[in-house]
Amino acid sequence: MRDPSDEEMAAIMVAVEMLWPRPAPEPAPTEEVSNRWRFSGRWWARPSPARRERPWLR
After folding, report:
1. Is the full-model pTM beyond 0.85?
2. Cα separations (Å) of 17 from 5, 25, 40, 56?
3. 3-state class of 3 per DSSP?
4. Which of 12, 21, 31, 55 is most buried as measured by Cβ atoms within 10 A of its Cβ?
């Protein structure tokens, strides 16, 4: 068996580099999203006395 030429060695190195598995990149840090705005105007966000049905007020 003979040693590979410089061109063959370069081609082998490129092939190995392309096929070798790489670790996945670290996910970017995410900021914690506040859900406060989503629930600020909902009926369940009001105090319980304010949520009671008052038929005489309709």
Report:
1. no
2. 18, 17, 54, 78
3. coil
4. 12
